What does this fold into?
Amino acid sequence: MAHKNVADRWERGSPYERYVGRWSRQVAPLFLSWLSVPGARRWVDVGCGTGALCSAIADRCFPSSVTGIEPSEGFLKTAREHLAGHVALHRGTATAIPLEDASVDVAVSGLVLNFVPDQRAALLEMARVTGNSGTIAAYVWDYAGKMELMRYFWDVAVELDPAAAPMDEGIRFPMCRPETLEQLFADAGLKDIEVSAIDIPTVFANFDDYWEPFLGGQGPAPAYLMSLNKSARARLRDRLRVRLPTEPNGSISLIARAWASRARAAGYNMATK
It folds into this structure.
């Protein structure tokens, strides 16, 4: 089966919020509790998207400042609508952060690193803007395991269409495993590395509550779904309806796991870049 226009589309805030943003907002506070950074620190959120992590930092961490960096104007527009006056938002990328050297104390990134082509360069750039011994941390979905809303989708999609396998985030993003995430941080020269799982329940009121966000076309799985013709889409929908663990009242209870890693900046050195 040929798939046209299938891409990692992360451009519009509203479809993203329905698909995965509502769950990423639940991960962010747990991630920040795990980091346990003291107050009065300068933060940057690299790849801030619609602002879930920035908002949680501003609400919970008593920061002296929060800056969000995001390449998508659509996501920045949504973030500005919710965070104006609380967070400084700038257009930029993970490998070209528009901040001065050692200008923050904490550099974080939520659910982004796997989409960055040069992940080591991104961590080195986060180290550049972070003061010596500052905190660098990130979290990514456990696509191959317990990010179940996507795992069920791809398992069924590949059963019906083996050609879909290369689009499965669990295959595409080997970094989204604890051992490879830890190694990535080590390869960037970071110190005192720790990795932990963060699990949240993802409860859907019914099958439509699970299915309809995939129709928004935002992200690899929704983009793949919308590349299918009507009959292929219906086959996938019907197989998923049977496969998902559904309670007698019609609700569907799944788990979303993120792997989080934190480390200490060892001092930025241009020679390591």
